[in-house]
Design brief:
Number of strands: 8
Strand content: 35-45%
Order of helices and strands: HEEEEEEEE
Helix content: 25-40%
CATH class of the largest domain: Mainly Beta
Distance between the termini: 86 Å
Number of domains: 2
CATH superfamily of the largest domain: Immunoglobulins
Strand order of the largest sheet: 1-2-6-5
CATH topology of the largest domain: Immunoglobulin-like
Shape: globular
Structural class: alpha+beta
Number of helices: 1
Largest sheet: 4 strands, antiparallel
Oligomer: single chain
């Protein structure tokens, strides 16, 4: 009788293990696809519409997601952050634009563009 009563418990353990393994496999599959969904730059960042104390930075990527410009006075002091505006250039590519204001003339600034989780480019401008 000991074997018959433990058999349903063993089947229950196996069933839980199977479901746990199944859901773990799904999560692993999702996370393994994440690098494939990362943005890459199609058009490198470029400067547009310079004003007396402002500069617009634009770039194009091949995936969806938020874009950011971080800038500061040294490459190690990029504490200012601006979220870009996104325009659809075609069905797969997206143009990001960010207008930085309150810049000081005759000053060198460093900036980089980022996607949700990755740095896409590091550059500098003299304003």
């Amino acid at each position: 009788m000991g074997k018959t009563s433990s058999q349903p418990v063993d089947l229950l353990r196996f069933s839980i293990f199977k479901k746990s393994f199944f859901y773990s496999s799904i999560l692993l599959g999702i996370f393994s696809l994440m690098p494939l969904m990362a943005q890459t730059i199609v058009v490198k960042p470029y400067l547009q519409n310079a004003g007396p104390n402002e500069m617009t930075i634009m770039w194009e990527v091949d995936g969806t997601g938020d874009g950011f410009v971080e800038w500061g006075l040294t490459p190690f002091d990029l504490f200012n952050t601006l979220t870009s505006t996104v325009l659809n250039s075609d069905e797969n590519n997206f143009i990001h634009t960010a207008k930085i204001t309150d810049l000081q003339s005759q000053t060198k600034y460093y900036y980089r563009v980022k996607s949700d989780a990755q740095i896409l480019s590091n550059l500098e401008i003299k304003f």
